[in-house]
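> Could you send the Transposase prediction when you get a chance?

Sure thing. Input:
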Amino acid sequence: MLSRTFGCVRVVWNQTLAWRHRRWHAEREPTNVPQANAFLTQLKRTEQFAWLNEVSSVPLQQVLRTQQRAFVNFFEGRARYPRFKSRTGRQSAEYTRSGFRWRDGRLWLAKTDAPLKLVWSWPDVDPATIDPSTVTVSRDPDGRWYVSLAVDVPDPEQAPATGTAVGMDLGVKDFAVTSDGEKIANPRHLERRARNLARYQRRMARKQRGSANRTKARAKVARAHRKVRDARRDFLHKTSTRLVRDHDVIVIEDLAVENMVRNRSLARAISDCGWGEFRRLLEYKTTRYGRHLIVIDR
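Output:
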């Protein structure tokens, strides 16, 4: 049922995105959520897409809200234009309270008969004590499944003042050089695993499209990418946490990453650094712990 739900979510996203695109070019009118809801209702009444009624309507409704936020972010300059979703990419379905039941740490989703089998990854939290407001089930291209819960938690205590400030210059040779003279080495996660990744990609290219062997080869490529992504995320989290813990004020440069990656000779190395994600981590961690982040123009 979950795989079917993922397919329905993907189809609703793609069909609604194409409809929005046609509507904008024909009428020059923006689309809101009620209008998208009306389009979804019409879509489900057609013979071609009647199978959308076989899954819970909750994740399909959430797709429309997610897409609306994506367009708001695009028009306000915070993100690029929303793209179509592929069946080989990451799949997800979001459920609000009306679409799931959480009891004693067990999760039932709408239109499923049995609770999901979960491996709890919060050792310090008793799952029976939480009350999630939304649940997101996702599957990575390498076949790993995840369940994310949105819960209300109290604000953490502000970190004790250190009386120090630090500026950072982000780069490729060194990930960052601080005003204290510290050089933070660039782990080059993708570069270190590029040979294995290229080998897996060559093997996949030799497999027949649509075959089971190509599916297995694609999963190997996805696992290699996940290892790179996980290692990069771990490094960025640990580095940002240490800087926020040790300094009251952090100063970084406003890097135009999207423009910089247009340089073909540096695009791969810049993307591997994860500067955009690093800034996002600094922004929310400094806010959460009572620190200050200053972003200066180039």
